[in-house]
Amino acid sequence: MARSRPVRDASPEEAAAPSPGPRPPVRRPARALRLRDFPGVAPVAVFGIVFLYLPILITTVYAFNDGDSALVWRGFSLRWFGEVAQNANLVNSLVVSLQIAIVATLVSTVFAILFALSVDQLRARGSGIATAVLAAPLVIPEIVLAVATLGFIRMIGLQPGLLALMLAHTSFCIPFALMPVRARLKGLGGSYFEAATDLGASTWQMFRRITLPLLVPGIISGAVLAFVISLDDFIISNFLSASGATPLPVFLFSLIRRGASPAVNVIATLLLVLAIVVTTITFLQSQRRSRQHA
């Protein structure tokens, strides 16, 4: 006959310890979504990329065409680069576009900085209304803005020309310069400014030593965006251009109407190079500032 083991009384520590419950289920990490999980997306994406960048590649290659047609290859040559450099009307239109873009970029960027800093002092409702009014050019059709601007400058006695183009481009570029600055300012939070106020910094010292350096990435992004938008604009420029003040997009359109010349490809290639250079410099500056603040 088997002897039964004596039952041992539980110690106070064991009695006080909670009884182990059921183990929680082990959660497996969620599987990352892959492109193959969305059938049909890859071909559409490839088609979109090809449709977007292949014409740019063809335009760049045909800028070195020796023939008189922009679409018929006759051999490699730098002939049309010389033709463009010697075209006085084209060079004048490029200078006009650069003047308009530089003035519009500087004025719109300064206005965007001042607006972004002041709108945060308003109440929530007032801030939303002010931002909506200033951002209206983003949603209003540009043809409407062009007609309204032309009528307004006629009403105040101003004729189409360089000054009218500068004023119109400046007002049109303000929302584009404002968006990166406002986003950067919202991402900073209020800790920097509260600390500066506790240390006794004045408003000007706070702006010069804290706010402005921290806003530099947003300011650069907004300025580049405003510059590109102004340089690329056609509708407003077409309505407000005049003899001797013809922006480059309007001049290019007149060239295309006369016939597809390789000069158009050369100008497009030069503008593409300019955009790449500006974007690269902006990116390198942002990376350098990020490393300095890291």
UniProtKB/TrEMBL annotation:
Residues 1-27 are annotated as: Disordered. Pfam families: BPD_transp_1. Its main location: membrane. Residues 1-11 have a biased composition (Basic and acidic residues). One of its GO terms (biological process) is transmembrane transport. SUPFAM superfamilies: MetI-like (SSF161098). It is a multi-pass membrane protein. The keyword RNA-binding does not apply. Belongs to the binding-protein-dependent transport system permease family. CysTW subfamily. This is Spermidine/putrescine transport system permease protein PotC. It comes from Leucobacter massiliensis.
